[in-house]
Amino acid sequence: MLVLGFDPSLTNFGWCLHNSDGVGTNRCVERGRFQTPAKTLFIDRYTEMRENVRALVERMGATYGVFRVGQESPVYGESYSEGLYGLYLYTCEALRAAKVDVVFFSPGQGKEHAATFLRRPKGWKMGKPDMVEAAKAECGGKGSWNHNEADAFWIARSAAKFWLYHDRVIGTNDLTPAELRQFTEIHTFKRGKHMGETVEKGILYRENERFFCWSVEE
To answer: Most CB atoms within 10 A, among 29, 85, 112, 150?
Structure first.
């Protein structure tokens, strides 16, 4: 499966096309970054990024038949800011207009998969060098990687596993413990006022909140 991954930023917006059927260097088909100067009027930066995303998605669709996307989004994590939420909205607009499916991961979720791959000890804080190391290791250990592109690669890789599981191409035995928890977690409260209540926390249960199937939207 070919999945396009995004690591949004107004300064360095990383992207990567991941091939889950590839081996070594063929895992990464293309990668790059969009950049806008800080001195540019804020609304122009957002609209430029939106159009960059739209153009890239359309090119990937025409060239490779890509209609699945994964995106890191601080909206779902500890790095939330109004500026990044604005970029999230503009990116969503571009993806919906292009009619592609998208799944969103928090920054911590993407890093957890990379940490699992590198077999980092529990509690290890994944930094930029770690993410680059993980991307290079998964792609044959060659080439010079920017950390934004590395983050985008791991989001794309994680999204590919999600979409393959969503489509029932793979099963639970094909997922790592971290992937299984993130995709399918169900939590039952054992104490407090919500004791006995069950909450479906996994991404798979949260369509139109954590993933969107815009390719089939009327």
So the answer is: 150
